[in-house]
Amino acid sequence: MGVGHSHSHNQHPEPTPQMLAARKKANWILAAILIPLTLLTLAAMAFMWPSGSKEGITLASPYATAPGVTFDTGKIQRVVVGSCSDVQAGGDAAAQQDTPGSGTAPQPPNAGSQCTFAYTEPDKGGNPVKVVINPDVAKSHGVKPGDNIRYLNLSKVQGAAGQGAPAYVFVDFVRTLPIIFLAVLYAVVVIAVARWRGLRALIGLVGAYVVLVSFMLPGLVEGKPPLLLALVGSTVIMIGVLYFAHGFSARTSTALLGTMFGLAITALLAAWATDAANLAGVGSHDAATLTNISDNISISGIILCGLIISGLGVLNDVTITQSSAVWELWELAPETSARQLFTSAMRIGRDHIASTVYTIAFAYAGAALPVLILVMLYERPLGDALTSAELSEEVIRTLVGSVGLVLAVPVTTLIAVLVVKATGIRGGVVARVASERTQPEGTVPGRTQPERGRPERIGPDTGGPDRAGSESGGSDGAGAATRRGRRAALRG
Predict the structure, then answer these.
(1) How far is Cα 240 from Cα 35, in angstroms, rounded to an integer?
(2) Three-class SS of residue 174?
């Protein structure tokens, strides 16, 4: 493990035995803490691994179709607005469908109302069909020629046409191409800017979702302890993501320790807040559905798990930044004391905290924008609105995540400073070694090279070789070490 990487394009010199020993010592210190924690986490994950059984779950999928009913796709050719009472052969009337795929023919609308119809060419071939567009879709977004849609085909259901019900009902838009385009664009931008590290980060993200889907979600369905489930799953995700994206190094291990601390604080605070604020999720239709399909599913447990997971990305961001900041500051000024190093790194951390808190708050506000608009229109007092069932979960998620995030910054900084100082390398040694190893052969350490084509002046004005040599071990010699030289000497 190294302590970082150099952006220099020059050939790095081999590290000295002292440097190798210091790096090895730092890694051993971190390994002594992280290896037992990792083994304990993996053991807990193996013990809590869900069986995958769905016994006792009664859930009727809204996308399951009755005999003779299919989900078809097609491209809209033209859109017309006409009377909803206009029923043609094949069921060209309009009605809003409540449950897709139920096989129950929708009832014809009231006479005189206006409906939107989309003449759609089926992807499987055949003549265009007249698909009725749901009123909420027609009013809020609308449809236009060229849109790809998914619709319910009820034309083969006996009696549908005879009852005056629509034979083709809009279900959803087909969004495959836009999502694929954005995903490819995202991957290209990340890899182009971050190179191999960006590619590793994307692969790590896929691995994180594998843990989420195969371990955490089934565990919640089976009624596993939500607090322990979230802690174990989140820790495994962070271990994999951090090391895979940033490599095995002292700064990565330091960031992981800080992340674990932030996770622990967030988990404890989330557990208390969920119980104290009575977050039951009763205002959500999806939560009500989950409550009715199984006795093992706890909506409060799902909310608790969500509070912990939601802050993982931002927590990882601040801890790796703080860890890197400490190492970079120390490499620039190895003679800095522990107190000064901590103070300097915390200046960076405070700026990062301020911007990140805004990120969390605005991210949740954007996700809850429809609810915020409704609350505004209700004209309720601000205190009542923030503590209501509609907004309280988002407010608590923001506060819990922010507290864990803020506390993780000083802890990560402190861990990084302690590890840096525990390497046992003194500032003067680092500067002197870096200076000596970056000087060309035949030059005196602590002295700069003369400009090409101009002879070096040696005499009383410059102090001569004796004076230069006497000052090479002092502060001037330490100041002659450049940032590139120090990093090269540290890493090799």
Answers:
(1) 13
(2) coil
Q: What is the DSSP letter of 65?
A: -
Query: What's the pLDDT tens digit per position in 100-118?
Result: 444 444 444 454 577 888 8
**Cβ–Cβ < 8 Å for 334, 257:** no
Cα–Cα distance, 154 to 66 (Å, whole number)? 10
Phi, psi for residue 148 in degrees, rounded to 5: -95, 130
pLDDT mean over 276-280: 80
- The model's pTM: 0.69
Instruction: With beta carbons less than 8 A apart as the criterion, state whether 250 and 23 touch.
Output: yes
The answer, yes or no, to whether residue 303 has pLDDT greater than 70, is yes
Distance CA 374, CA 371 (A): 5
Residue reference for tokens 């005499």: 459
d(CA 483, CA 480): 10
pLDDT of res. 491: 44
Please check whether residue 468 is in contact with residue 444, taking contact to mean a CB–CB distance below 8 angstroms. Answer: yes
The Cα–Cα gap between 65 and 100 comes to 8
The three-state (H, E, C) secondary structure of 284-312, written as one string: CHHHHHHHHHCCCCCHHHHHHHHHHHCCH
Query: Which residues are CB-neighbours of 124 under 8 A, at least 6 positions away?
Result: 72
What is the rounded average pLDDT for all residues in the chain? Answer: 75
Angle at 360 between CA 357 and CA 362, to 5 degrees: 105
What DSSP line would sit under 5-58, residue for residue? -----SPPPPPPHHHHHHHHHHHHHHHHHHHHHHHHHHHHHHHH------TT--
Closest CA to 372 of 396, 355, 356, 388: 388
Distance of CA 338 to the CA centre of its chain: 32
